[in-house]
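Hi Y.,

Following your request, here is the sequence exactly as I used it, all 226 residues.
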Amino acid sequence: MIDYMAVISNLKKSSFDEAYFSRIPVCNQEDQLIGCLVPVGPWILKDEEKINLISLWRQRAMRMFLTQFESTSLKTYEYLKNSSIGEKNRIFFLLYDTKDRFVGHIGVANIDGETGELDNLMRGIGGGDPRLIFYAEITLLDWYFNLLGMNTSYLRVLSCNWLVISLHQEVGYIVKENIPLRKVINNGMVLHDPSSIDKANVLYSCTKMLLCKHNFYQANNWLTKC
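Below is the corresponding structure, written out as C-alpha cells. Let me know if you'd prefer a different format.
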C-alpha cells in the first residue's frame, strides 16, 4: 500500500530550488512539454510576490467560489500556512509554463486514502499553451491516481460556472448531483450552505462531480510519461 501521507509530506520542501527539482512535467497529447507543476511548501511563505498574485487571482474570480470574501495577501498567507502546507492530507501546486512563468495553480484536499477533492484550479494569466490548464489537471490526476494510489476523485463547483464544468467533463468527471444552496452573509463573508430545495434562496446550485481511476484512464488513454 502506498503511504500517500509520506508522499505528500516529502513534496512540501523548505526551499523553492528543492520544490522545483521535484516538479511534475505537464505534457500535451503529443508528448510535448508545455509546463510543470511545482509543489508548495514552507518556502512560499517568504515569497511575497507569489502570495500577492494568488490573492489577486482569487479576488478576481471570487464570485465563482462557494465561499466568498475580500481576498488579501495576509489571508492568503494564512491559508497557505495553515491549510495548503499545514494540513497533512492536502497538497497545492503552482503551475508554470515553458518560459518559467507562474501562470496558475491547482491542488487536492481532503485526501483520505480512497478519494480526495480537486480544488484551487486557477489560470491566473494567459500565454503559453492555450490548453495548459486542461493538461495540468490531467497531469495532476495522473500523479494522484498513480503516485498517491487513490481510486476516486471528486470536486464541487457552482452550477453557473459552466466553462469549468465543461473542462472537468472533458477530463472525465461526471456530474453526480446538484445540491440546492442557501446563501448566507456572515461578517462580510458569503457562504453557500447545502440546503433543501424549499429553503434554497439562489437559482444556482453546487454541482458535485466524480471521477474514478478506471474512467480517467479510459478517457485519456494517450497518457505517457514526458
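The domain at 4-151 is CATH 3.40.630.30 (Aminopeptidase).

Thanks again,
Q.
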